[in-house]
Fold:
Amino acid sequence: DATGHRHSVGTFTHKAEAKRHAGTLEVSARRAGWRSSDGAKQTWGDWCAVWWPTRPVAASTLLRDESRRNTHLMPRWGDVKLADITEHDVRAWAMKLIREGRSPATAQRCVHLLSASLKEATKAKVLITNEAAGVKVTTGQETRQR
Structure:
């Protein structure tokens, strides 16, 4: 598994059957989004503690992002394993922020901050994909052309 432990999944009558089953489990584990055992067990909060000090942003941006991180990201994603974050969950969280009274722009900025952290996790080879990349926050209302 992701932590390096071996697990028994039963017995097989043929070696080829066991190998097919093992191959299926391996493909499934790779699709789960982790590249290393760290990615499978590291929470977003743990990754954020590693990533945050390396951000090359202006002091004013850091201050605003720190507020967003503490207010919106940490309560939702702090205890979630990196490999368990899905695009659907990110989109649902953004829409929940809007339903709770945040503006779509605030929700989008929160998604961008989460996406930036996951992008760096992919660069660090902790994750295979950034599940927050490309998530756009809309209210479903069309804006009028001026």
User: Anything to note?
Assistant: The mean pLDDT is 85. The chain is about 55% helix and 0% strand. Residues 104-123 form the longest helix (20 residues). The helical segments are 15-31, 37-41, 44-51, 59-77, 87-99, 104-123.
